[in-house]
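Run folding on both entries below.
>entry_1
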Amino acid sequence: MSSESNMEKHDEKSTATSVQEGRQDDVDKAYEFAKQHAVGPLTEEDNKRVLRKIDRNLLPLMIITYTLNFMDKNALSYSANFGLLTDNHLVGNQYSWASGSVFYLAYMVSQPIVARLIVRFPIGRFVAVATMLWGAVLMTTAASRSFASLMTIRAILGCMESCINPAFIVISSQWWTREEQPLRISYWYLGNSIGQVCGGLLGYGIAHITNHNVPNWAWFFLIFGAFTICYGAFLFYYLPDSPLNARWLSDQDRAMAIERVRSNRTGVENHVWKWSQFKECVLDVQCWILVATFFLDDIPAGGVGSFGSIVVKGFGYSALYSTLLLVPLGVIQAICILFGGFMTRRFQNIRTWMVAGCQIPALIGAVLLYTLPRENKRGLLGSYYIVQTHGIVGTLTMSLVTSNFAGYTKKATASSMMYIAFCVGQVVAPQLFLSNEAPAYKTAFLAAFVCFALCILFIIALRFYLIWENKRRDRLAAAEGETSHSDDEFLDLTDKEQKLVFRYVL
């Protein structure tokens, strides 16, 4: 056995031993709860019963929150064709900066703070407060009448909305097993698709409101924002921080909910920030490959979010009709996301293959948008719809974070790093829509083609890296022989501190 193997096993044992011997504040909160309410292995009937309760009570909250998150940040895109640009005196690339770039710059800058807040505060209350705050900020957009005021409001909105995605990644790992996570993440990520459909339909209706005191475009922000504030207040009451305090579960069911995720070995809840886990995450090769993949995928996605209605109008459709034509984008994305979720539920270790595969039709769509003549408006619209197949990437890369990163601080850090990459992609995307290239935007669609191709290369590289790492751990475990690792699932150890028992999903 090599000295490296001996050192790795010694580090793993010493870490677990030190946690067991003391420093109980460092231990996951589920550790003590599981000891006090020992329920043992669950029967299949109990497991399904508790899972149904979790899905029935938690998933709708996450789906609605994510829907509002998407609609509210894209309200600017819906209102762009109804006088917002004129009333705010936007010229040149100012709309690009206001719609996406400044929003996601603020989103990005907020991520390190969000990572600390997720660890420091109860996550359910944190999400609820963030939701109410962003709803209030959104409503103030109706009062904007200049580029400066619009930029300020969008920056604050970006800070508020930046809390949701990293929080939902952590919540998903608290409640569902590694096998269940891809499909559940697909469900709440459907909020993007639902938001696309609802935003288009509501936008079509709101555009018909006539009031001489309030411009048409302002109603988007007033209506969306008011509903979000009311919904955030409901979340504050109903969204739990973890299985430990879910009001819709009995004590026995809470214990079962924790027992269900014991095999994840990724923890449930811990409010101690651990710099060692932060450092491990920053130095983790897997994390950086996922960050690169997320970044590349979000450059095309950012263009759709900020310039969707403008691009479709540029194909030759009216302002009102182009808003309605955004609805199929959400439907296509929803179908693709659900397909990806069900496939990963049905077949093991195909997440990376699914990410690579969904890029191929998207890549073809980007090529067609770049090459088709402008007179072929139906062909251009169809190509624009095809590009939406890449929506699977977001859900499956997030499911890899929830499944493959153990340790509460490490998972929160990885989530924030992913969304920093997301923000950079969203900042870059609007800048690729050059005003002097309207309505063709050749640079933007050429960049989308390159991004889809690079995504395929990165995710395949990640797959082979994880296969190599799992085989290396198998050799370490075989050399060690039979070793007991019971009762260490909730010690808030990272995936690298559990080399003998933790295997990565692909």
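>entry_2
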Amino acid sequence: MGNNKSGALSKELLEDLKSNTKYSEAELCTWYQSFLKECPDGKISKAQFEGIYASFFPDADPTAYARHVFRSFDTNADGTLDFKEYIVALHLTSGGKTLQKLEWAFALYDVDGNGTISKNEIQEIVKSIFNMIPVEDQKNLSKDENTPEKRAEKIWDFFGKKENDKIAEGEFIQGVMDNKDILRLIQYDEPQKIKDKLKEKRQ
């Protein structure tokens, strides 16, 4: 998708990323060099991506969540992330605008990519988020959301849906923007160490 392997970013891709993320030309060029060092063929595989997440969560199991995150950013569905997809992923998970983040969150929850979210899809993502919370920390959660099932039910009830209903993208984004509690329930708040690790990778 516009990447070349000569060690320099194409002007077209550079302009695209500068206008769609918060990163400067210098930052993007530096990251491209380190990206090529780690991924000489210009692609990150699903296994490599899962490995990055595993290093962030030594006390939990992030595999399922990493797989869903990977899917949501693999926009051309070729089973790898190229540099553009990787930078967009970093941008959205570390500091994208609220609307962009919610569009991404919708894509994350829309597991089958059909443009709507079902109750089963909510349950699947919420379960993968729970796998990343250490057991000790799960004990501190409030009683009405201390299991994946309870948390998924709470989200579903907020949208006022029946068992077999679906949530469309606009409805999902508006609902979350109107209710900060739902925003908290649908996302995984990255621990500080993830943000520190991302900063290290940017150096």
